[in-house]
Amino acid sequence: MKKEKKVKEKKEKKIKMKKEKSPKKFFEIIKNKWLIKGTTTLLLVAIVIACYVLINFGVSKLKIEDIDCTEKKLYSLSDETKSKMANLDKDITIQLINMKDVNYVIEYANKYPAISKKINVEEITDLSSRVDLQTKYNIKGTDSLIVVKSGEKEKTLELDDLTTMDYTTGSYIDKTEESITNAIVEVTIDKKPHVYVLTGKSYYNAEQALSLIISELQNESNDVDPIDILTKGEIPEDCSCLVITTLGQDLSELERDKILDYINNGGRILMLTSQNMLDIDTPNFNKILEQYGVTFGYGALLEQDGSKMLSNSPNLIIENANASFMSKLDMRLQMCLINAGKIELSDDAKLEELGVTYEIIAETSDKAFIRKDFTTSSSSRTEKDEAEGSAIIGTYITKKISDDKDSQLIMYSNELFASDLPVQYAQYTTNAVNLYNNKDIILNSISHLTERTDTIAARKKDDTQPYTVTDQQDVIIKTIIFVVPMLIILVGIVVGVYRKRKR
Q1: Do domains 75-190 and 192-449 have the same CATH topology?
Q2: What is the per-residue pLDDT for 281?
């Protein structure tokens, strides 16, 4: 009886459980672990695919060249350029002719409209219907050209104008920004500074010795002319800067007096001297120097610090150049002087009497000495030479003329470092002006004296060539940057879910 009762209760229990279970069957299945995990995985995969599609679409619109990861922002426009372009009051057109294969130039040019609404970039890739341009600019075949225009004024730039060789390192330096910015300045400037180079008494032919500097000055919208004061009879009123190079003989009294008048009217002078004036008696020239509290210690500077000479040559002196007017330059300026002399300044009391203040641009180490003994070929100091000690080789002097007027002098105890003199360095032969930052130092010195703040500091440079990518390389880079990380994330998610299911 008891047994039958137990069987009956068991059957009733099963029927009850079946009835209770039936309506919940669907929900129980939903709650099943594996199905939840599977659904989660599919959802995550769908999200990843959606993200990939969106990112891929975005990347297709992104140019890798727009990302500037260099320390000095070599492929971004400098703050100086942005400042200059912000004040433009004239419309500018930058024509890129046959530049379709020169991506870095196109990229650079298209940065300008972003900082000034006055600038428009026009890309001309098909010249077949532009016979006017072919004729006007003598364009042949695949010749590439940049034309910067404003009204009737224009400046043309070839690809060779956008790079320069640093012969101290053997590397090319990109100067695309410098060239385009200065071209814009040239076509918008109302009046060019006028630089005169003193001739007639020069030790070297000044026009020939400084031909590269003169050419660069002209490219930066300066008028440059020689002047023989004895022939001219005066220094022209439009003289923004007078360049005086190493003398082969003393100035005449007329030349001296005209230069003194120029100083007293607030004149600006760049003076390049050298030890080649050693045996010359120059009382009239000395009168010019006296106005600034300066004398020139004749003799040849020899550096004894091995880290401050080129190719172990004591007469090829490498020094850092520092001055307030160079502070904007985005580089460490080094100059290489050749057979330099010594600049000596009067004592503080005398300088105050003259109304003179000064900055030292460059000086040697305290191991340098002045060679007075020219009977020896030794690079070591002899008893006839001056004692070792630092020597000034570059200085910037301001002389107060009146409350609202001053005269300025930038003086380097060397002319050859700014010249076309050929110099052998390692396996390279170059002009002295192309060693280190010699050219930029001279150009920025003159820019300061002529109050050309628009051309100072546009010379951003580094031992780096412009880097461009092909379409195929562009895809590869984008894949590495975006697609690969997404795939790694996807694999990580799938593996994680799989491992959880195995537990």
Answers
A1: no
A2: 87
